What we know:
This protein has helices at residues 10-19, 52-67, 79-85, 95-106, 148-152, 162-165, 171-180, 196-203, 213-231, 273-286, 290-297, 305-320, 327-337, 343-401, 404-415, 418-426, 436-441, 443-465, and strands spanning 37-40, 47-48, 75-78, 108-111, 124-127, 132-135, 138-141, 158-161, 188-190, 194-195, 234-237, 243-245, 252-255, 258-261. By secondary structure, the chain is mainly alpha-helical. It has 4 domains: 9-154, Winged helix-like DNA-binding domain superfamily/Winged helix DNA-binding domain (Arc Repressor Mutant, subunit A), CATH 1.10.10.10; 168-243 and 252-270, Orthogonal Bundle (Arc Repressor Mutant, subunit A), CATH 1.10.10.10; 273-341; 353-457, no CATH class. The strands form 5 sheets. Strands 2-4-5 form a 3-stranded antiparallel sheet. The protein has a 3-stranded antiparallel sheet with strand order 3-7-6.
Amino acid sequence: MSEPGQLATSQQLALELFSAAADEGYRPIETAQADIGFLRNNLLVRILDLTVLGRRLIDAAYFIVAQRETEEAIYDEDLGFFKWLMRYPAGNSNRNLRDAITAAQKALIQVTGPVGSEDAHPFGSLQLINRVSIEDGRIRFRVPPEIVPLLRGPQKTHWLSLRVTTQFNTTFARVLYDHLVPYASQDEVVTEYFSTEEMKGWLDSKASGPVEYKYFNRDHIEPAIRQINQHSHLEITRLRSDTKNLPGTRKTGFTRFRITRKAPLDALFHVPDDRIEAYRLLMDGAGLSQSDIDKIDQDRAFYTVERLRNAYDYTKAKAEQGKLKTVRGYCLDAIKNGRKLSELERVNAQAQQTLDLSEQERDAEARTRDVQLQLHVSAVELAARDRNASESEQGISQFLAAPQEQQDEWFRDFVHAPTNGFLMTRNGIDKATATIEDILAAPLLRSGLGQAIFMKTRPAARRTTGT
């Protein structure tokens, strides 16, 4: 589970992304003053066959998803922001990023039972990410709907720190960290035993052939432990007693890990909520970029939250009047010069907003009336169809119960009626040779015959009942 106080609001996390990078000299994500990450379900620890860069890409995408209050069909974010999240080297072309996207789209999450559960068999696999596009400095992507509850649902169980995971430079270091961090809900814990074959599968699910522990330990486990101890809040150790042999042999085949938390992640500095909200408002509402926010954040004493909100409200009012060519540039100028709405301008803007809201309410009421009318018409039509079907079947029952002579008379009247000739032709029935079986076998003709007989017999039925 997450540490107490560890989870910041999504806006708090977003702020640190914007304030950590400067135009003068690239500052990677691990230099941020506050921890950046998200809560995720323990089920998401087994990502199969994906490189370090591909895993960073998935982390960045899932971070964006975890920030949003509601599920979205397409997630849209600033590309520079996204690259910084995944610690993509500044100045690099998008070629490696495109390769990472392609690899991530091919990889799978193998969903398994919770850590420590008796049933460790996988019960399914999911695609990590669906469509991804990069255009005009934005990245847009879809995630499978089954993934979203594992990032935002009540079953969240551990905190994934992007400041930590982006520093791993080998796949197995990242894979091992993913599998160990769910255990770190206590200050000290010893994991269950993992077999060498199982850990080999974490690294490459398609790998075949046996692997010896001593070589796998030398090439993968020990280097991964060194990276985790160096870059994360966890200290991983093992004693001689933390390995055991394969059954019936003297070869080591299993190992376990001792985990100690060095420091709580929530002990780090974080930015106040009101400033975070102001930054997000400027990003989403006025189109300010990552570098714009970074410059503002470097002088918080001058660029107060009140100053930022006043500038945003001022820009919004001018935009609603259609007076702006570029919203971003106008907003930056308003921030720099401390512009704000006068009291009368604010009253006028509020009055206009009330008028707009009233117009929207009237439109909504009109749409509601239209929908209600359509529903009423549909209900009337449905009732009429049901009534006709009932009357038709009553007529057929009358026909079948009538004497043969009466049946023949009704049949001749129906067959020779001008309006029924076309229907009989469409159903491949010749009027001269038609039989009652032919008519009853054709749904439309059967319905027509039943309606005709019902109308003929209805007056008699009323006289019989005295109505």
